[in-house]
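> tool_call: predict_assembly(chains=two)
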Amino acid sequence: MVAPSRVPKPKAINCPNCGGNIELRGFAHTRSAVCVQCCSIIDPTTPELQILQQFDERLRVRPLIPLGTRGKYRGVPYEVIGFQVRSINADGVEYSWHEYLLFNPFKGFRYLTQYDGHWNDVLTVHGLPAFTTMGGRKAVSYNNVSYKHFQNAVARTAFVMGEFPWAVRVGETNTVDDYIAPPYMMSSEQTEGEVNWSFGTYIPGSEIEQSFQLKTKLPSPQGVYANQPSPYQGKVRSSWRTFLLLSAVWAVLLAYFTFSASNKVIFDQSFHFAQAVPGEHSFVTQPFDVPGRGNVEVELSTDLKNNWAYFSLALLREDGSQGFDFGREVSYYSGRDSDGSWSEGKAKDSVVLPRVPAGRYYLRIEPEMDAQASATAALGMTMNYEVTVRRDVPSTWLFWLALPLLLIPPILTGIRSMAFEGRRWSESDYAPSSSSSGDDD
Amino acid sequence: MSGPSSNCPNCGAPIKFAWSSAVQAACPYCQAIIIRRDVNLEAVGTVADLPPDASAIQLMSEGFFDNKHFTVIGRIRYEWEQGNWNEWHLVFNDGTNGWLSDAQADYAVSFAVTPPITFPTPLELNKGQVFQLQGAQFMVTHLTKVRYVGFEGELPFTTTDRSEFMTADLRTMDARFATIDYSETPPLLFMGRYVDIEALKLTGLREFEGW
């Protein structure tokens, strides 16, 4: 094994234009270094320190992570050595993002990009993504992940600071295509027929703050970014899974309540009623036993036809300790007209009294029919009816009410998720309407 | 991994080859370029100083590739329009050799392969063209005019007649690559894959002040 030789710290250079001091951090990798004082781009590999370009000082932008900042990013120490602003022009509006060049002498280069508070960690891709389509749209596939095309744009270098391992120039343009599979993004950059791919991962700004021990808080993200992971990602699916699970529980409970109810007839008797008969119309039935526990259903079946009747009813405990008063109107009409036959109402009805304690009960029944009609009609209004009382009938209406409630969470999550995706894609080449942002041609 | 020893034909210093198949070496004492023809050594000029570079690798660095131990015994330095890179010559403990390229700390290991097909000339080659090599689709992604800068250590061929030549870079979907090297006729073919520096378990690396 050889004794390691030591590479000395790069020496600062003096700007050949303004004489300003330019600190270097990228060792012999650096192919361009920017003088912050006079905005000259210098090639430090040439002995005469050739000036590659001078650009307008008014373009100056302050980086959120100062040059020279060192941090431990994902377990590896990196130093911020370069910063550039790149921009695209969509419908006359300039959108710009920031790119930080990170360097480690053993691990090489890595980028952080920042747009409207959204950060991406970007690495060069060595493999070749395959072009494909997803739902009729352009897409690429890489490492078994498919990425949907998001945007095509011409990116222009608007400002540079620090140093770069290539000859950087303000005003340089290249064609950028972004493909997304949140939180990932594949981007291709084309210059003079050469395509370079990079792989981005969306990262929260807080991770940057921590990694680089920033003293100031980074601006919070605005809007939804191309590869920002949706807070609803996977939640739509899981909320439907929950729904299915709850529905299964629901069905089991429903079956249980249906089949476990005793549904026993405890009273059944037929009566005749004539409105025209004078005197008190109310009467009481024979007492009957209400055993066990649960509800009590009172069913009225009449032979009413094109007529109505009103029943005032009471289920009374024989010892007088308890009583349930209730009433029901039963009406049934039918006929035939130009649209064919019709009917309205039903000749029978029922009432469920929840939780009736066991005991001996009787019914007080007071039927009533159209008194006026009875007065004029020959025989008055009459009907036959049957009263059936059942103990512990299956009561499922609450269950049926619950079913649509169970649907609310998955549907809401679905709507929210769609709204989030809508905001994401509204910034893309595939926005539903509005801007006719430059699609590829 | 001990090769034959001899004396520098220029300065007479004892030369011990680290690799028995080395064809070209630099005399560590007088910087003469020594070329081995059969058993004879011939000095053909002096090596030029290599420009400063920031590679973490150096001669005699050691590491592992696919669990095979290697030692770095030589280097070729190349330049292209937008930068430069090193091809470090590796000798494995089984006597085979390979290359570790380091382009701005982007690392790849490759091996010389006998071309299975006759490649077109650089002028007939286009970006996007696909070749079937070792059962995979390799696409031409870059055509580069390369300039030979210099060498150090031991190499498996001579580089003294090199100056400018074309290379074609080909890639697969799974980060394997091939380089068609037109420095010779017929062209040479190198095939390999990109690697993470940690995976190479390198030792004897250079140190960087401040890091």
